[in-house]
Amino acid sequence: MGPIPLCVLVLMTALAVAAAVDNAADDEYTWPQWKVPLVRKRRTVLLSSPDFSAPPQQELSGTCGIECQRRLPAPSLDDVEEFLSYETVYENGTRTFTSVSVQGLNEVVSWSRNTTSPSRQKREVYGTDTRFTISDKQYSTKYPFSTSVKISTGCSGVLVSPKHVLTAAHCIHDGKDYLDGAQKLRVGILKEKSRRGKGGKGRGGRGKGRRRKGEKPQEEAPEQEENNGKGERKGKGKGRKSRSRRSTEVEKPSFRWTRVKKTQVPKGWFKGVSEGLAADYDYAVLELKKAPKVKHMDLGVIPSIKKLPAGRIHFSGFDDDRPGNLVYRFCSVSEESNDLLYQYCDAKPGSSGSGVYIRLKEPGKKKWKRKIIGIFSGHQWVDVTGDGMQQDYNVAVRITPLKYAQICNWVHGDSSECQVA
């Protein structure tokens, strides 16, 4: 075999370099694979029923921030197991406490830790309001917006399985007792309003035929107009205006409310347990009595948001200042600790508990997938330096390998299904 021409060698080298660059770029946009610890039930005991007397919390304070947490000793295995032990409250008001064991903790890769946090002077909405109201049913009832739900205590949440909702713990429990409205907890899932009410045998078939022969054939025109505009036209009079008004009404979504079967809250959220780390455990899972026919969003684990090419997070919730509407926003993360994300996402009360997600490629595939990587906790006053001086932030609790293991165990009831994130 003769010598390879120089031009061919140069071309091959260039192609190899390009392939290496493409692979590196793909890695930046690909979900990392994590081996997570095993969180297993150790013992469950029956507790007395809660009082359900706590008032709703509009604003949290006293959060131990990045610099503050650096001064705290690293939790031991015993501490971690205590923080991840949890209470379960059932629909009938009974309550249990479950202690857990954690296995494989040393195999989890440690998180990078940033050590600076800039102060801010404004609250909740920073400068120009960058939120988007998703009021049209064509969007609000379609994925990913359809995964957002409303909690009857006034918060938001996100579907993480066919019948499990992830939300903020403070939407259910104030650290001492369960909220007044948590005794008969319900979850609202967006649905399309039906102009025909309860009768109906759908949008076609025999039901449609009977209506054509019935007493009000004029109702057929709006129905045909909704079906891609293929219906017959009826001039420019009052009929057209009426059809337009009815069509606009159909566009507005409403809620289908479902009762909660049980609620699970980590012990790390309770007062006096994790001391300055309580905000790290501001999450809870609600199991619904009946699974809605809505697609859910999977959980994901990412070591650093700021190191992603875009570095943005997204979430949708039901902000109080825009009642009845789903509100979407995205923003960059300004700082992150092992367990918290500090950001400028514009938000108002009511959005707490929303699922914070990002979009990356699945390993070995070209398909992009959104996953929940955090829970929006809300506006908080944070002790950044550890000297008691507090600054305000919008904060989200990030999904770590430990939290992934616990939440996955709550959802599946079998920790063996939760070994890889």
Structural commentary:
With 421 residues, the chain is an alpha+beta fold. It has one domain: Trypsin-like serine proteases (Thrombin, subunit H, Beta Barrel), CATH 2.40.10.10. It contains eight helices and 17 strands. It has helices spanning 6-28, 66-70, 77-84, 137-140, 205-213, 220-226, 238-251, 401-412; strands at 38-47, 60-64, 86-90, 95-103, 132-134, 148-151, 156-161, 164-167, 186-192, 253-266, 284-288, 312-317, 326-336, 340-343, 355-361, 368-383, 390-398. Strands 2, 5, 12, 13, 14, 15, 16 and 17 form an eight-stranded mixed beta sheet that branches. It has a six-stranded antiparallel β-barrel with strand order 6-7-8-11-10-9. α6 (220-226) packs across α7. The two termini are 50 Å apart. GO terms for molecular function: serine-type endopeptidase activity. Belongs to the peptidase S1 family. Residues 138-182 form the Peptidase S1 domain.
Helix content: 10-25%
Extract low-pLDDT stretches: 8-24, 111-123, 197-250
Strand content: 25-35%
Q: What would you say the CATH architecture is?
A: Beta Barrel
Give the overall silhouette.
Answer: globular
Euclidean distance between termini CA atoms: 50 Å
The quaternary organization reads as single chain
Number of helices: 8
